[in-house]
Structures are given as C-alpha cells and as structure tokens.
Design goal:
There is one protein chain. With 68 residues, the chain is α+β, with helices and mostly antiparallel strands. Strands 1-2 form a two-stranded antiparallel sheet. A hairpin with a 2-residue loop joins strand 1 and strand 2. It starts with a helix and ends with a helix. InterPro entries: Thioredoxin-like_sf. This is Thioredoxin-like protein. It comes from Pseudolactococcus chungangensis CAU 28 = DSM 22330.
Length: 68
C-alpha cells in the first residue's frame, strides 16, 4: 500500500481492519481485502470491492479512473 499511497497523494487512505470492524465491512458491502471505496463530500464516487485479489496495476487504474 505505501507505493499506491505515494502514487496518489490526492487521496487520504484510511485502513479499516475488517475483522475488528465487521459492522463497517457489512455496511459498506466489503467482501474482499483490500477493497477501496472513494468518498468525496460524504458521497461515494468510486468502488473497487470484490472477493478477488487486486494487483497494484488494477488499484492504480481504478484510482486514476475515479479522478477523471
């Protein structure tokens, strides 16, 4: 994650431990880890959430697409 965070300094990344905060994971429909939900001004603007593993390239492409 540090490389992805460094590539996208325009975002604030918040890590939530799904095992500790299962209610949050259920509320947001988080199935797989890592999952990304982009929120701007209190509204969801992007989502990369599934039970499949994500490559660094997939995450970077997702974050770039949300900016567009």
């Amino acid at each position: 994650m540090p490389e992805i965070e460094a590539t996208h300094p325009e975002y604030t990344f918040i890590e939530v431990d799904r095992d500790v905060y299962i209610d949050v994971a259920i509320e947001w429909g988080i199935m797989g880890i890592p999952s990304f939900v982009v929120i701007e001004d209190g509204k969801e603007t992007g989502r990369l959430v599934n039970k499949l593993r994500k490559t660094k390239e997939e995450v970077n492409a997702f974050l770039t697409s949300v900016k567009s």
